[in-house]
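Narrative progress, year one. The postdoctoral researcher (J.K.) led the effort to move from monomer predictions toward full complexes, under supervision of the PI. The following entry was the first complex the group processed end to end, covering 648 residues in total.
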Amino acid sequence: MSVAGETSPPMLAIRDLQLGFRSHRGDVQALAGVSIEVGEREIVGIVGESGCGKSITALSVMGLLPEGTTRVMGGSIEFRGDDLLTLPPRERRQMRGRDIAMVFQEPMTSLNPIMPIGDQIAEPIRLHLGLKGAAVTEHALDVLDKVGIPRSRNILPDYPHQLSGGMRQRVMIAIALACNPSLIIADEPTTALDVTIQGQILDLMVEARDTFGTSILFITHDLGVVAEICDRVVVMYAGKVVETGRTDEVLSSPRHPYTQGLMRSLPSLDTRQERLETIPGSVPALFDMPRGCRFRPRCSYADDGCRRDPPVEVIGGQKVKCWKARQISGVHHA
Amino acid sequence: MIFFIMRRLITLLPTLIVPLFLVFTLLHLSPGDPAAVMLGADATAQQVQALREQLGLNDPFLVQLFTWLGRMATLDLGDSIFLRMPVMDAILQRLEPTIMLTLYALTIAVVVGMVSGIVAAVNRNGVLDQVSMTVAMVGVSMPEFWFGLMLIVVFAVEFRLFPVAGYTPLDQGFWACIWSLTLPAVSVGLVQAGFIARITRSSMLDVIGEDFIRTARAKGLPSRVVILRHALKNALIPVLTVIGITFAVLMGGAIAIETVFNIPGIGRLLVNAVARRDYPVIQGVVLFMALTFIFINLFVDILYGFIDPRVKNQ
């Protein structure tokens, strides 16, 4: 496993990204200084509850933020050294699908329902690789073969509704892999699938990294998925990164109270529980953010000191944005 | 695809029976004695009675109905009481102006409507959106005949670019025919374009919000391709439905427009027949309208199957 971000320059470096939503209650901050790095051949997971800003982060890397309602207010997104945010729109568009590709959550709705699978895979191949005619079909079949759909099962003329959920997600991954991108952003690619299929799709993503050296930014709310495939994990809460580190470290000794809460709320197979533990309270609304540490109202360690913006503490390989990080270090989930 | 079309054709049969039955019954129940009307005010009661007997008007309702249905099955629509010719011939004679006007107006409506609908959707809430939707709203709310009259005043009377009224048949040249139909086609077409523009816009907006549009953008496709190849084709079904209805309604004769522009089409034939209580003609025209409607809808249904593969499997 490569420990990237230390020796080689990272493939992707999101630095202090600030993003605003325009809403009827005025502008609100959706991302408040998010920094995430993804190294060569690295799989980095972003975990957090719905609304923590993980999908918006992914879309801002792709340059697919909803126009008019979202605005980048600061920071940079460097991809192989270039700041994507200052790139002309045309160049940015040409990078999509060629250098950075994306796999979405719902394979059913993410595929065009009335276009044959073959045409949907062929589009980026024609566009970015400049192939024509039979070469396109050949390449498409190759890619499908790589995602575990053998040539003998020629599905090119089929429509999405004729395939199973797992097959559809394989097709989505094939579309993403079609032009051999350096980075794939996967936004909850297994959430909509059966558990048995989830494993296969995860294996496929790891395989893509191993064979093609693709870096993957993997967005999920499922710590089990993170444990299975991610080299490093980024925990987000309310538009901020609260903890990062190697997956094994973060999951075995979470330092941020929020990460600890997430770990505690995982169902366990070993002990029979009547009720799952939950984190008290709920995610604060964007227009009503608490001052200082955003997790403060839900945190059992919080005191008045937490009303100031917490520093980033470096403990071992982990970076934790919490006043109490050192104090509660080593406290393990029950 | 063959099976899909066959299935549609079979489900069509009951849809054919219903309008036939309704047309016959409604006329049968409506007041006024066609025999008396035919013979005029001077006719004696015996003469009327004799004609009623001859026309089969004294037979029981069901007998009349089935005799009539039998004739319909052989496409015999009977003879017009006033025009002294078979109803079929009367309709066929009036068909050309109606078909020409319909196709011309429909072309204008589809081109103008779809283009402005797409432009409006792509520039949602922008200036182009607001301008085209305002114009569409005005178009939809405007009576066709009034718009037609305005066009006559401006383009025929003032600038003398087009004839004030009348129809030049096709056999006197295609362009001469088109030229004579321009003002009526524009007045009908632009009003219908308003409907098509509005449905195109809303359907496009629905589709543009879908996940697969985001996928298309994520592939790096240029906006033009995303909009035309991915969004438009998916947005087409509701648009096609409205176009089909417009087509069918126009084929039934744009009654007001045909009157304003003095075009000898189906609409005028119907109005005149109603005025003279020319039952066979009324029945024939109403039946013709119903059949046109049914077959255009069938055609639209089949098009759905070509656009959306999921339709076939339902």
